[in-house]
Design a protein that fits this description.
alpha/beta; seven-stranded parallel beta sheet
C-alpha cells in the first residue's frame, strides 16, 4: 500500500546495483513497495529470490560491456532509468603493510570504478529524460577512517568527489547526485562480528545501536522523492551520530 503523497506519483524505473542482499535489498524493497518498477543488479549467476515486483539482472559493475548489456535490456523492457542507486561494493580488509596490491585494486575497481561506470551509463538515459537521481551508497568510514580499511575507506571517500562533480555537471538537466553515508548496519557482514565486538561498536555510537537496513532505504527513497528535488552534492550521514564532526 502506498503512503499518502505517493498515490498520485507515476512509477519510475529504479536500478539498485548490489541489490541482492543487505542494504541494497532493503532499498529495492522500499521502492517496489511504493509502486516503482525496480531492477536489482547482481553479479551472482543465481537470481535472488525476490517478489514478482522486483526484477533481477546479471551485471558486473566493473565491466562496461556487461553494464551496457544490462542497461540496454532494462531500457528496452521497462524504459529509461530515472533513479540509480549505486550500492555494489566489497571489502578486503587488512593493515596497509599486509594488504596486497590485488586486494587494493579489486576494492577500488568495484567500489569506486564500478560506481563511476554505472553512473556514466545511467547518466546517458537521464540526460535524454532531462531528469534523474543518482544516489551513491558510501560509508561513515569514508569520512571517519578505519584502521585496516584504507582501501575501502578511500573508495567511499572518492564517491563524495564523484557525486559532487556530477552534481555540477548534470544539475542543469534536473539530475541530482548525492551520497548516503551509513554507519554500522544490521547485515550479514556485521552479523559475523562477535557479540563482544558488537557491544564495543554500539557503545561508540551515540544512539547506542546499529541501523536497520530499512533506515538506509528510507533515506534513499527520500533522496529520490520530489521533496528532495533541491538537494544535490550532499552527503547524508545515517550513522547514529558515529561520524559527527567529520
Amino acid at each position: 500500500m502506498c503512503a499518502v503523497g505517493e498515490i498520485a506519483r507515476q512509477p519510475r524505473v529504479v536500478l539498485v546495483t548490489g541489490g541482492n542482499r543487505g542494504i541494497g535489498a532493503a532499498i529495492a524493497t522500499r521502492f517496489a513497495a511504493a509502486g516503482d518498477r525496480v531492477v536489482i543488479g547482481h553479479r551472482t549467476n543465481v537470481a535472488p529470490d525476490f517478489s514478482a515486483e522486483i526484477i533481477s539482472v546479471n551485471m558486473d559493475v566493473t565491466d562496461p560491456s556487461s553494464l551496457d548489456d544490462a542497461f540496454s535490456t532494462i531500457e528496452r523492457e521497462l524504459g529509461p532509468i530515472e533513479v540509480l542507486v549505486a550500492n555494489a561494493g566489497i571489502t578486503k580488509d587488512n593493515l596497509i603493510l599486509r594488504m596486497s596490491d590485488d586486494d587494493f585494486d579489486e576494492v577500488s575497481a568495484t567500489n569506486f570504478g564500478g560506481a563511476f561506470k554505472t553512473a556514466k551509463r545511467g547518466a546517458k538515459g537521464m540526460l535524454k529524460l532531462k531528469r534523474g537521481r543518482l544516489i551513491f551508497i558510501g560509508s561513515v568510514v569514508g569520512l571517519l577512517g578505519s584502521a585496516g580499511q584504507s582501501n575501502y575507506a578511500a573508495t567511499k571517500s572518492a564517491l563524495i568527489g564523484l557525486a559532487r562533480s556530477l552534481a555540477r555537471e548534470l544539475g542543469s538537466r534536473s539530475i541530482t547526485a548525492n551520497v548516503i553515508a551509513p554507519g554500522f548496519v544490521e547485515t550479514d557482514m556485521t552479523d559475523a562480528l562477535s557479540d563482544e565486538r558488537k557491544g564495543e561498536i554500539a557503545a561508540a555510537i551515540p544512539l547506542g545501536r546499529f541501523a536497520a537496513p530499512s533506515e538506509i532505504a528510507d533515506v534513499a527513497f527520500f533522496l529520490a522523492s520530489p521533496e528532495a528535488s533541491y538537494i544535490t552534492g550532499a552527503v547524508i550521514p545515517v550513522d547514529g551520530g558515529l561520524g559527527m564532526g567529520h
